[in-house]
Amino acid sequence: MVRRSWERAISIRTRLTLLYVTLLAVVLLSFSGFVYWSLSRSVRVATDRLLLTEAQALSSALEVGDGVLSLNLGAEEMPPGIVATLFDRDGKHVLETTNPSLVMVSTAVARAVQGEPTYTTVEAPDGTVWRVLTLPLRQDGEQVAVLQVARDERDLHAALRQLERLFAVAIPVTLVVAVALGQFLGWRALSPVDRLTRAAAQIGAEHLSARLPVQSRDEVGRLAATFNDLLDRLAAAFARERRFTANAAHELRTPLTLLIASADVTLERPRSAEEYRQVIAGIREDAARLSHLVDDLLVLARADAGTLRLAREPVDVAQLILATHERLLPLARARGVTLALGRLESALVLGDRVWLTRLLANLVENGLTYTLPGGTVTVSTGRRQSDVLIDVADTGPGIAPEHVPYIFEPFYRIDVSRSRDVGGSGLGLAISRWIARAHGGDVHVSSTLGIGSVFTVQLPEWRDE
Ligand code: ADP
């Protein structure tokens, strides 16, 4: 939803207050409107009923003698607050109880002549408001006269005016109090958020160790805790990044220093062609190793950044093992280690053949590297539930339990001098693990010192259905 700029500029506190005060205003206005309407209606109904009762009482005092109408009623018997006027059956004015000019509704009289009673409200010339009932009177089934009774509505109007005045004061006062209360409550509820914002603003990349205060277990407290978790993860990621860069620089610097030193020593005095050839061959070998190291670093950096794309095609694991076995046999022979094949169950995984080959070759090469001559490295594969498992087992030195949790970390080497002798940079297993995980699987090791290690790659099996 696109928010208008003014909507974004107004604080949550003001928006909440506005919303609830508007709601309150609507409720108050509808409520007072309803009270006003129902009060005036019920008073009006009561007045009308009273008028009718009194008109009926008066009609019983009506006397018709020789066509002349008269009300047989003493002045003291006249109901209080009532004004009555009598007309003959043709609507001609006959007599009245008080000032005749006070109330007379001629249209209503005309209608009463037709036999129809009417209630009307009229304003008298002196400004008073009257409720008037105009009633046709019958005797022996024949219409004989028209009676008009009126009652002053002054009290009702006064009461209603007072109610209006009450509403006119009470509603605005209530709304003003509501605005003040809303602002105060909003301030109380949201001030922890302001505090968090200020605290968060102090935390930069340089101060990632700082944490937000978690003072409560409410929404704001949870926000602070979540933010702190995020900071933990960020700090860990930054630390990993720094370690990686420092390690990478260190790994590159040592061979480069050696390279420069050997070139310097060679250049100190003239050498024979054979000596130059040997030094250049050595430099080439070192450069090749460095190039390999830089390749591995790039792979890990790109894997970390998520920019490495893997193909997704069905790959037969048994065939992959056969091909790798064939390719690495010469290396195994050179190391004096037997490279054997165990049980090979044919199974498919969905993935990138080149990267899977690299994963397998890394593990087998490690086995061949760390196993002493005369030992054996055996590769086998089989299915388990919905997974394909590849085992690379060796009869090498094994890995002490304290090292096991770390050997998949970049640059981690157990015996640095030996590992460096054999050209390892400590990146092989990290890359292997990344490849396995990028395929939805993982790599684990189980090892016994002095007996050997088994590296197990687990990959989800792919079935062509
Ligand atoms: P490297 O390039 O040093 O071999 P790896 O990431 O491949 O780096 O391995 C990390 C460390 O784990 C190695 O330095 C080695 O100490 C240990 N390691 C790996 N494979 C084996 C194995 N098959 N037997 C014993 N130790 C091993």
Give, in spatial order, the strands making up the sheet with the most strands: 4-3-7-6-5
Q: Mean of the pLDDT scores?
A: 87
Could you name the CATH class of the domain at 311-460?
A: Alpha Beta
The total count of strands amounts to 14
Describe the structure.
- By secondary structure, the protein is of the alpha+beta class.
- Among the domains are: 64-151, PAS domain (Beta-Lactamase, 2-Layer Sandwich), CATH 3.30.450; 219-303, Signal transduction histidine kinase, dimerisation/phosphotransfer (DHp) domain (Helix Hairpins, Orthogonal Bundle), CATH 1.10.287; 311-460, Heat Shock Protein 90.
- It is built from ten helices and 14 strands.
- It has helices at 5-9, 12-59, 106-113, 154-202, 219-267, 273-305, 317-335, 353-370, 416-421, 428-438, and strands spanning 62-65, 68-71, 82-88, 93-96, 118-123, 129-139, 142-152, 313-316, 338-344, 348-351, 376-384, 387-394, 442-448, 452-460.
- The strands form four sheets. The protein has a five-stranded antiparallel β-sheet with strand order 4-3-7-6-5. Strands 9-11-12-14-13 form a five-stranded mixed β-sheet, with helices on one face.
- The model has no long low-confidence stretch (mean pLDDT 87).
- It binds adenosine-5'-diphosphate.
